[in-house]
Amino acid sequence: MNARVNGVVRDLPDGATVAHVLELLNAPPSGVAVALDGEVVPRAAWSSTLVPSGGVVEVLTAVQGG
Amino acid sequence: MDDPLIIAGREFRSRLVTGTGGATNLSVLERALVASGTELTTVAMRRVDSAGRTGVLDLLRRLGIGVLPNTAGCRSAAEAVLTARLAREALETNWVKLEVVADEQTLLPDPVELLDAAEQLVDDGFVVLPYTNDDPVLALKLEDIGCATVMPLGSPIGTGLGIRNPHNIELIVSRASVPVVLDAGIGTASDAALAMELGCSAVLLATAVTRAEKPELMAAAMRAAVEGGRLARLAGRIPQRFWAQASSPAL
User: Fold this and answer.
1) Rounded Cα–Cα distance for residues B225 and B223 (Å)
2) Rounded to a whole number, what is the distance in Å from the CA of A61 to chain B's nearest CA?
3) Which of B39, B45, B38 has the alpha carbon at shortest distance from B70?
4) What is the pLDDT of residue A1?
5) B86 and A33: CB-CB below 8 Å?
6) Catalytic residue IDs of B
7) Number of structural domains, chain B?
8) CATH number for the domain including A6?
């Protein structure tokens, strides 16, 4: 199934969770946050939250700015 | 002299809040931050790239500087609220510098969206530091809905045009019961000193330091200017006069 991750359509295995997506992105263990379909997914729910087909996942971190 | 800045019950000895944007690399940024004496520094929230870098966070942690996430780049209340919530989750702080800009050309705050976002975030338990226009009416409204500071611009972000409407800043200061932080438009040290002389509680700047020819030296200049301006404000300046007044006794 497909989901849009940080603006790029990716093929994910059925049953993929938010935690799988973070692994795929090689995201650092701290300092990141995830939104699924416009709602924040708390860190504690990463490994139990399934990414639905067609889901929109945004993974953000802090960068230089402001 | 013990004269701390207090925002939402948190005490700061430095009245200079810095940004991290515009520095050519992290070592330049580090030297500038140290020279500025800042205790609170903004970061932006962006998509994790394949490199998965969090260099700026590691740097701030190492220097013991507080992180203030911003909502830079957001154009609507909905976007800004989501970005603030993501920042809270990623950085474990409920403080946010709220920016909702109207367009890319001016980067001026959109007052309608800003007020809407501020209200939602205050309700959600955030400590909201809004970047606002130099509008005394809007500043008071932001304070009334529970913002922890008001942060009027001196002039548009990154222009270095200084404080274009000093009287408005004075009006905002005269009615505010939360700290007023002059945010945006600072070009050089005299602008920062003027902000403090007008009664602002602190100055927030980035570009003026990070894009200066010598960022570390400009950071030191800004630190001194903020301190000097604050002292002058507390000292009470003399009234301006039309005619001369001798400072030596008459013959």
Assistant:
1) 5
2) 5
3) B45
4) 87
5) yes
6) 97
7) 1
8) 3.10.20.30
